[in-house]
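Supplementary notes for students who missed Thursday's class. We covered one full example, reproduced here. Read the sequence, then the structure, then the short commentary at the end.
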Amino acid sequence: MDEIKILIINESTSQSIISDIWSGGIIFAGFFVNFYCLGNSVILQVLWGVIALMVVRAKGSPKIKRMAPLEALEYLTEKYGETGGDGS
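Structure (token representation):
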């Protein structure tokens, strides 16, 4: 099984939509500020383009897993046991 780095538990549809709008808005704001305030620098356009691609790519990453609370509990119990992974 792939190692999960980020576990999102019970994200509702509205939270997902808001998250997507926020991510897109931040990327758009970067392009907007570059165009109107910074003289449309090519270097900044490339930088924001790379950042936008990284955000889009991260959204579909297999290292980000969305689970219901019970699924997450089962996954974490299977992975770390009852002790929580610290051995105590």
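Commentary. Residues 13-37 form the longest helix (25 residues). Residues 33 and 50 are 16 Å apart (CA to CA). If anything here is unclear, bring it to office hours.
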